[in-house]
Amino acid sequence: MRRDAELLSLLLQCEPWVLDRMDGKARQFIVKTLVAWTGKSEQTISQYRNGTSNIPVEFWRSILDHHLDPRIVHLLIPLDVRIDLTIDTADEPASPPEFFRAAVQAEGEHHEQMKLICELLADGRIDELDRETVVAYEAAFHQHRLTDAALYRAIVNTYNRKREKAAAR
């Protein structure tokens, strides 16, 4: 069975009551509720659930308008499994204090970008602003990893040099 059909079936089996984000009322998570939320017929939802018909993105978006479930968000925006191999031969920065300030500022900007993405995705809607922000984050991610690795190396090396000097006294 397809992953989206499995998720729909699981939601209908395991989510007896959910809080409707539109009106704040508790609703039974049953086919009749999905009919009301999505405008699809019970027969169509049954076909989606059984995997005999493709589930359109609009169906999931309609559900997210009422019930924010991270499994649905993950279905729509899958998290890629990544293996990043970085062979970094860059020299240690000549002036660690300036490098540390710049790297910490870059880290802060990266975390602000992640915070914005989390806020955009938390509203349950997936729109053009979400896509643009995630694309920008993905484009900057590799540079963030390189900066993070260089920062780690500089911190450890600087600490070890200072510790060795103190031990030599």
Number of domains: 2
At the fold tier of CATH, the topology name of the largest domain is: 434 Repressor (Amino-terminal Domain)
What structural class should be given to the helix and strand makeup? mainly alpha
What portion of residues belong to β-strands? Answer: under 5%
Low-confidence stretches: 80-87
Taking the alpha carbons of the first and last residues, their distance comes to 69 Å
The number of helical elements comes to 7
Query: Largest sheet, described in full?
Result: 2 strands, antiparallel
Helicity range of the residues?
Answer: 55-70%
| Shape call | elongated
Averaged pLDDT: 82
Tell me how many strands there are: 2
Strand order of the largest sheet: 1-2
What's the order of the H and E elements? HEEHHHHHH
Tell me which CATH architecture of the largest domain applies here. Orthogonal Bundle
- Rg estimate, integer Å: 24 Å
CATH class of the largest domain: Mainly Alpha
Describe the structure.
The protein is built from 7 helices and 2 strands. It is mainly alpha-helical. The chain folds into 2 domains: 3-76, Orthogonal Bundle (434 Repressor (Amino-terminal Domain)), CATH 1.10.260; 96-168. A hairpin with a 6-residue loop joins strand 1 and strand 2.
